[in-house]
Amino acid sequence: MKLIGPFRQVVTLANLPLRGKLSDEQLEIIVDGGILVNNNKIEKIGNFETLKSENQDLEIEAIEGEQVVLPAFVDSHTHICFGGNRANDFAMRNAGKTYLEIAESGGGIWSSVQHTRNASEEELLKTLLERIDFLISLGITTIEVKSGYGLNVENELKMLRIIKKAQEQTKATLVPTCLAAHLKPKDFEGGNKEYLDYIVTEILPKVKEEGLAKRVDIFIEKSAFQPEESKDFLLKTKDLGFEITVHADQFTPGSSRIAVEVGAKSADHLEATIDDDIDFLAQSDTVATALPGASLGLGEKFTPARKLLDAGAIVAIASDWNPGSAPMGNLITQASILATFEKLTTAEILSGITFRSAFALGLEDRGKLKEGMKADFVTFKTNNFQNVLYNQGSLKAENIYIDGNKI
């Protein structure tokens, strides 16, 4: 066994509930604490000197100076496997161009599809691993990664195989999601329904056969797929044995209700969610995932996280890192900014980027510092954990641990 510490503060999140609003007074903070690790899991959390005296033949990993430790962060919604760059989209959008005008000039999602299709597997793997390393440097050790820039059998499988290769080369946990239903590709002959049927009959069976993903996503929006055809598609994917998640209510309301009705693990975006649907979400186990990076990238309003939490919803926060609407990728900065606009407590933010995000991915073995949990945690060189969010991402992680080992 290994004892790591002492830490000025151990912020465990251990006693916090899965859903609803939280006060900072609910946070369990162990002063001068230590973490006892055994076989990649947390054996015990407590006072460092007490743990040291109670256990024999320990390997001691001493922490120098004043540091605080938190559960490692979870980013439950990213699009970080992509080719190309859409800086011109950002510039055009800020200059007042519409979505249609940007698309007509060669931008938009279709631009990323073309770049990703044309990129070599080596290039896509290299850039994906670079983005994973950046997220790890922030203290994020569990990362969802979507396909969705291939949009045909060959290139969706190419993306998912690259994500699988990346998993073999990183210590972070990658959670692949098939987003072949990102939008109907321009080169597909047929309508939306035909394309969704093509995904169900041609793409997903091969994804399942190769074990490339257990999750399926769809973008329900006027510019992508309509509610009823999306609901039919989601039910078919469930019948194939996939878990589902939904891009919901980004610009128009209504699709979060579909996510709940089909039993989706999460409904992500929700910037346009109306009050009735907030209550509907709150009465379900579907996680409401806020994506503040998209709001910042597009200049749109934020997910109504305060209303969702007050209604009793499970609220997670993810980066939505993608080349178009959310190019920043810094989850800590985004979550800190969301907190100021939505008046979220530190406990709510920390829960939203740890165990609540993990729940959205079906992973309940991480996100809290407590006995039996995966020993993933992050330290910051400060004497007060509040400084992590207060500095809005400029206070960098000092050490990142995966399975109890510093990486």
UniProtKB/TrEMBL annotation:
Residues 68-384 form the Amidohydrolase-related domain. Its EC number is 3.5.2.7. SUPFAM superfamilies: Composite domain of metallo-dependent hydrolases, Metallo-dependent hydrolases. Keywords: Histidine metabolism, Hydrolase, Iron, Metal-binding, Zinc. It is an enzyme of class 3 (hydrolase). One of its GO terms (molecular function) is imidazolonepropionase activity. InterPro entries: Amidohydro-rel (IPR006680), HutI (IPR005920), Metal-dep_hydrolase_composite (IPR011059), Metal_Hydrolase (IPR032466). It holds the Pfam family Amidohydro_1. Signal peptide: none annotated. Pathway: Amino-acid degradation. NCBIfam families: hutI (TIGR01224). This is Imidazolonepropionase. It comes from Chryseobacterium oryctis.
